[in-house]
Amino acid sequence: MRSESKPSPSAQERPALAAERAKHSEELAKVHIGPLWEIYRKVLTRKPARREVPHLWPWSLVRPHLVRAGELITAAEAERRALMLLNPATPSGFGATATLYAAAQLILPGESARAHRHSPAALRFVIEGEGAFTCVDGDKIVMSPGDLILTPSMVWHDHGNEGANPVMWLDGLDIPLMDSLRYMFLQEFETTSQQPQKPPRYSERLYGRALFPAGMGPGCSGVASPVWAYRSQEAQDALECLRRTSEPDPFDAYMLRYANPANGRDTFPTMGCRLQLIPNGAHTSAHRHTASTVYHVAEGNGFSVLDGVRFDWRKGDTFAVPIWCWHEHAAGGTDAVLFSFTDFPVMMQLGLMRKETFADNGGFQPVNG
Ligand code: 1HN
Fold first, then answer.
1. Residue 11 confidence (pLDDT)
2. E strand spans, 65-196
3. Which atom of ligand 1 is nearest to the CA of 103?
4. What pLDDT was estimated at residue 221?
5. Where does the pLDDT of residue 369 fall: very low under 50, low under 70, confident under 90, or very high at 90 and above?
6. Is the pLDDT of residue 1 over 50?
7. Which atom of ligand 1 is nearest to the CA of 124?
8. Calpha distance 78→58 (Å, rounded)
């Protein structure tokens, strides 16, 4: 039962009370105490009051700036020559979304990016160029366009380019999430580069097939995938098999999840990776959820409608879909392949996953921008 007590006089009704309250708040602030009622409604919003907005970074814009960065700074000076894709609504942060960092990194022939390890987990999706490698805990992994390379939390890694051409890739890290947890550790390796200690590509050869060391029982694994490279050709091949043997998902068309083969979970506890095929002419239905995602166009052309705004995209473009943002995708002219990384596993493991489908208008958002 609601109590029928008399409502207290509002501050508007009693100017003297308003002044006393303001004075009280000032006194509290001096001693690091705050009145909840002043921020309650600002914090406890009825739906996510995110600041981040959906945004697309065209490769035709990013690439020339990255090439220019190659003229202005060496990989050695920069540590990592990367251009961060910053969400326009939170430019002082370093995220494309509230939890995910995305950047384009360039390494020129003959360069190396020194070895270190840190608490944020990282992934690379190669955009262009052959002959670069990432050495992950002594495993020298040569990278080609479309390959996904993982460097889990606190695992040593350095990069090099032994080819004849510049190599560019998309970096994905969970830095904004780690930063919000204040969980930041960085350690430099004693030398610039690791000496490869393991048979080349050992993580793929030992864990990336349907064969495991017998000591690894079912479901056993660390928190990150023991496989550190997922090859473009294998992923494309699996995607084609999926297309030929199943019906498209209404929201994702044909989507693969890069899995940790030891336990079936995502690549990292903080970031999952996906590869999806949108067939030529297909247009997915709109939905939204509490996971945020960064998409990268691996192949083809098309557009996505994000919170009612149409974003046209082509190969090499990257776009951010923040939390609780309506999204739908369409491919035009050719099939499109979208790589993405997402904080989906965070939301799942914390029991925070919420989804909503766009019911009106046949599942398509009205486009107003
Ligand atoms: C890092 O170590 C790399 O290893 C790329 O290539 C981007 C952003 C912040 C912190 C560490 C890399 C990074 C990073």
1. 64
2. 82-84, 101-107, 112-118, 122-128, 132-136, 139-143, 148-151, 157-161, 167-173, 186-188
3. 7
4. 76
5. confident
6. no
7. 6
8. 23
CA of 118 to the centre of ligand 1 (A): 9
Task: State residue 330's pLDDT score.
Answer: 98
Is it the case that residue 148 has pLDDT exceeding 60? yes
Q: How confident is the model at residue 268 (pLDDT cuts 50, 70, 90)?
A: very high
Query: Which residues does a 6 A CB cutoff place in the pocket of ligand 1?
Result: 80, 82, 103, 105, 113, 118, 122, 157, 159, 171, 173, 175
Please check whether residue 14 lies inside any domain of the structure.
Answer: no
Residue 40 covered by a domain: no
Ligand 1 centre distance from Cα of residue 45 (Å):
34
Structural domain tally of the chain? 1
Q: Atom 1, ligand 1: which residue's CA is nearest? A: 80
Q: Which domain holds residue 199?
A: 55-363
Give me ligand 1 centre to Cα 252, in Å.
29
Structure letter (DSSP) for residue 362: G
- The 10s digit of each residue's pLDDT in 285-333 is 999 999 999 999 999 999 999 999 999 999 999 999 999 999 999 999 9
In a domain, 46, yes or no: no
| Closest C-alpha to ligand 1, atom 6 | 80
User: Is position 234 within any domain?
Assistant: yes
Residues 6+ apart with CB under 8 A from 16: none
The pTM assigned to this predicted structure is 0.95
| Residue of 66, 80, 194 to mutate, ligand 1, most atoms within 8 A of C-beta | 80
How far does residue 133's CA lie from ligand 1's centre (Å)?
15
Residue 219 has pLDDT above 90, yes or no: no
Query: HSE on the CB side for 92, CA within 13 Å?
Result: 1
Of all protein residues, the one whose alpha carbon is nearest to atom 14 of ligand 1 is: 80
Alpha-carbon distance of 113 to 73, in angstroms, equals: 12
- Provide the CATH number for the domain around residue 305: 2.60.120.10
